[in-house]
Amino acid sequence: MSGTAGLGSSGGDSGSILNLMINELKKWFASKEEAKIGSFKFTHRPAIVSITGTFLIIVMLSAMFSYQAANIKVGMPTGGSGGSTQTGELVNVTLPDKTGVSTQKSEVTEDVSIPDTNLKSVTFTLTWKDEPDIKYIIRSYTNAPDMFQLKVSGPNNITAESAMVGNKHDPAGGEGKIVLKIDIQQNKKGDNGTGTWKVTIVCGDCGDQQGIAIAYVDDSNGWTLTPSYEYYKK
């Protein structure tokens, strides 16, 4: 959509008409010859030039702006083509989960296909659960959080990413969650966001089981990716 508002296609025609009228009036004021505008003829009368000329200019300007108003559609930007109007029933769709296991300092990319058009938003939710703390009779180990991030790229060069997030610590196993929602700026065809999305699961540091003197290595974690979206059903 154009960001510049104008007078639409009628501006060029009305400008030409106004220039023609002004040129003819100039000829009339400068001589005693007849001036012709369209099918009308006017004879120069020096005594009434000022009053008559002013009146004619007012009439012509009124006609010009009336013509423009009749040719500009109300509710549409006068300089652009307009966008897609989102109407209809708003439907929520949750796609099947995708699961996997990531080692620390690694990336895994999953394809997610969205077939519907007239999208309002697309959401990717990543969840994971860290291992519980290790408890022995004489010592215990605290499991540090595991870190994850989401990066997505969709049709028509849509991109988004989350921050790197760690799960909250819980002795029984801390749960982590990332919700990445992308609001879709829809186009006239209504197909923005429709197609295949690339979702990259980034695994950062996987916190070890920390003890007083030693630690047990924790270098991986499982995850679940849940894609969902909203669209307007026509």
Shape label: elongated
Average pLDDT value?
Answer: 74
CATH topology of the largest domain: Jelly Rolls
Assess the beta-strand content as a share of residues: 35-45%
Helix proportion range: 10-25%
The total count of strands amounts to 16
Largest sheet: 5 strands, antiparallel
CATH architecture of the largest domain: Sandwich
Number of domains: 2
Structural class: alpha+beta
Q: State the CATH class of the largest domain.
A: Mainly Beta
Low-confidence stretches: 1-12, 65-83
* CA radius of gyration: 35 Å
Terminal CA distance reads 23 Å
Order of H and E elements:
HEEHEEEEEEEEEEEEEE
Number of helices: 2
Main traits of this protein?
single chain; alpha+beta; five-stranded antiparallel sheet; 2 helices
In short:
This protein has 234 residues and is α+β, with helices and mostly antiparallel strands.
